[in-house]
Amino acid sequence: MKLFFILLLCIPLITADLQIGFYNSSCPQAESIVLSVVKKHFAGDRSITAAFLRMHFHDCFVKGCDASILIDSTKKKKSEKAAGPNLTVRGFNIIDEVKTSLEASCPSTVSCADIITLATRDAVALAGGLNYSVQTGRRDGLISNAADVNLPGPSLSVNQAFQFFAAKGLTLDDMVVLLGGHTVGVAHCSFFRDRLDNFQGSGVPDSTMDPSLRAQLVKTCGSRPNNDPTAFLDQNTSFLVDNQYYKQILGNKGVLQIDQELALDSSSSGIVAALASDGNGFMKKFADALVKLGRIEVLVGGAGEIRKNCRAFNAPSLTSSRKQLG
Asked: Given its phi and psi angles, is residue 42 left (phi above 0), alpha (psi -120 to 50 degrees) or beta?
């Protein structure tokens, strides 16, 4: 009996986790506040859907979905924002606006990590995607180092890219579906210029790219070479969340190498074909994959903190004594 009692004490009676409606009691207007701000900005700039998808992905793939990407660098140390892959991440001003409104209504209650997740959901829905349910209850991280940023690049093979996703507990299907977020994205010419004229140092263009697309991209990238112009990754419905991206890469119209590789590699080509032929199926799988992405290595319960300002860790008196960015 004594042994049973000891074992019972070792079993947590309550396991902290994410849940739908986490703020229903503590801040019932939280999700409506996020939606209101996102909707206002979307009305003037539909590209924020791509911006939030990228921010969410870049945040979750480093130290988990903990809003570490939002921290500003200090004189002593560079934060994740300063890492090369994050220099073109944007939308931070919208997060700040949401946080200011939430702090006015519910001080120290809603995490910055949850704001990113909710804003991404709302931006996806505004762009024609599903308005899926989002689990909340994330806490904000206490570490943000530029050196920790290691993200899959645009020139990887399918197998190379999948190693990054597998390390985060995601499947190949998840990867192909999440890359479908490129349906509303853009890429700077520097990320694909070699495919236009000197693919992998060969001195010739990438033969897997449709000639008409190549001609269009040569014109785009050559117009202002010093400014590193951008091109839409989905040439047809550039601001809509739909499955056109998959149809285009099946026609050799993938802008980034990894996009085109998805349609050519035997391990992923079947998944691409299925998504290209089922628009509604893609919508559902994309929403499910985003929910799964948002659960990567989250901090819950008493871990981390709830930041007052998403760009900076709380003052030592407001948080734990854990080591923070200098």
From this structure: alpha
